[in-house]
């Protein structure tokens, strides 16, 4: 058990120094450019916000910067799809296993029958999950997702970054290929452009490190917001999301991250990372320069170091 008060006090004291040390890792990374709009992010930025169950914060660096959630959103659309459809319907369409491949790989879709995506956190799985969000139109589905994310982030006013959305929609041919493949396999049905618009929109929701920390805090609280007492997610669905975050949350570097940090986490190509210490605190990090696995170079370094110094690993 960690002593929350004294831990965050200690973190607050050392955080600026640790952050500057981790920032150097950005030098070895690259800002994502396959979505053109993302390439505008500052290469050396690094920000962190930690929020504990009492509402105490520790923050450092470029934590005022906003960025799009990208793959981080997949954790919460999975949860919404579980709430909308139930566990068995969701797992008829997506699997429960890590792939060991890149997040946008199509390799295993062809290799393993019946061709359902390996898990809901790779693009194929997340596109399938987007199609399962309740709503009569894509606009209604997107509005429900945004509303859910706003409630999870403490009644915030999160918005879609339209420029990033348009940039993804215009250039997302690999995601289109995945979607057509899923239709062919009988996993997806419906209008592909509409399904992709729901997917690209939730990836393009803009947030700050504090928003990530706030959403992570709800997961740390097993689905109940520790700051308001509001029940937002059934505990079972948090358990499912948490397990996927450990096994697949950092793409094909999840094993290494589990060993080095030992925390449930999800990263996105914008350089954001959401992580949490169950029962204790939510963590939001951004560092746009990515390593070869597509995770924030400096962000991974910072979370691993924090977890090791503070003895936060679950394992
Ligand atoms: N890994 C990511 O963050 C990928 C999300 C991005 N929107 C994509 O589909 O490529």
TrEMBL record:
Keyword terms of this UniProt record: Acetylation, Hydrolase
Source organism superkingdom: Bacteria
Amino-acid positions noted as binding substrate in the UniProt annotation, renumbered to this chain: 71, 123, 168, 175, 199, 251, 269
Catalytic activity: L-glutamine + H2O = L-glutamate + NH4(+)
Keyword Acetylation: yes
Pfam families: Glutaminase (PF04960)
Family recorded in the similarity comment: Belongs to the glutaminase family.
Complexes and interactors: Homotetramer.
Name of this chain's protein: Glutaminase
Organism field: Saccharibacillus kuerlensis
Gene name of the record: glsA
């Amino acid at each position: 058990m960690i002593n929350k008060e004294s831990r965050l006090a200690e973190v607050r004291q050392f955080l600026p120094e640790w952050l500057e040390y981790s920032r150097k890792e950005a030098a070895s990374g690259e800002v994502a450019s396959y979505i053109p709009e993302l390439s505008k992010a500052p290469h050396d930025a690094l920000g962190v916000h930690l929020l504990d169950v009492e509402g105490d914060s520790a923050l450092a660096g470029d934590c005022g910067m906003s960025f799009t959630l990208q793959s981080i959103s997949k954790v919460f659309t999975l949860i919404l799809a579980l709430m909308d459809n139930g566990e068995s319907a969701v797992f008829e369409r997506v699997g429960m296993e890590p792939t060991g491949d890149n997040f946008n790989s199509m390799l295993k879709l062809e290799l393993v029958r019946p061709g359902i995506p390996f898990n809901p956190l790779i693009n194929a799985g997340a596109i399938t999950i987007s199609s399962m969000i309740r709503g009569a139109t894509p606009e209604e589905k997107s509005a429900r997702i945004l509303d859910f994310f706003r409630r999870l982030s403490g009644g915030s006013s999160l918005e879609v970054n339209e420029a990033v959305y348009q940039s993804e929609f215009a250039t997302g041919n690999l995601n289109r290929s995945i979607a057509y493949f899923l239709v062919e396999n009988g996993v997806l049905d419906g209008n592909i452009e509409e399904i992709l618009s729901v997917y690209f929109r939730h990836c393009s929701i803009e947030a700050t490190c504090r928003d990530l920390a706030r959403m992570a805090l709800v997961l740390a609280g097993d689905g109940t917001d520790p700051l308001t007492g509001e029940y937002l997610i059934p505990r079972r669905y948090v358990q499912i999301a948490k397990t996927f975050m450990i096994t697949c949350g950092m793409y094909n570097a999840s094993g290494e991250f589990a060993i080095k940090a030992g925390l449930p986490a999800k990263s996105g190509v914008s350089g954001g990372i959401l992580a949490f210490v169950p029962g204790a605190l939510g963590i939001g990090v951004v560092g746009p320069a990515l390593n070869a696995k597509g995770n924030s170079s400096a962000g991974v370094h910072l979370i691993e170091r924090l977890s090791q110094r503070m003895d936060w690993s679950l394992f």
